[in-house]
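Re: the pair you flagged

First of the two:
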Amino acid sequence: MTLDRRWILFAASLAVIAAFFVLREHWQHALGLAPYLLLLACPLMHLFHGHGGHRHGAGDHRAKTDDLT
């Protein structure tokens, strides 16, 4: 394991431990923010989702008359 990876794991572990103790003491404050975080997540998901991911091909997307059943 490289030295950089050890520091990253150490920092991540320390962050998880710190988050545990902070949330343990301030759990009601964190739950009070939960509805607002949910409302904030909706526009952020629309903003960062990427609007070009739904194309499956470069062809014409109009329905042909023989495809209709």
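Second of the two:
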Amino acid sequence: MAQINSLNNRNGTGMITLAKDELELCGLLDENGESDSDVQFLITMDEPGAWTVQVLDQDRVTTDFQANVEDAPVRVGSGAETRR
């Protein structure tokens, strides 16, 4: 699923967020719906302006859901607006 986010600044570091519902689908939140601080991500810049984000320990990722990424709407920001 695609999502358009703005780059945020936290203490001089650029940050983006990952959608909570997508993290939940992958089983990466704790029983209270909070981020599991034991989960680590590898972020690689593939080329200027393009990054790949992946969970380091793939055994932690739940893969028993079906997602058709090509048909999913693009979410814009943290609001409810979507675009196709």
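The CA atoms of residues 24 and 33 lie 7 Å apart.

-B.
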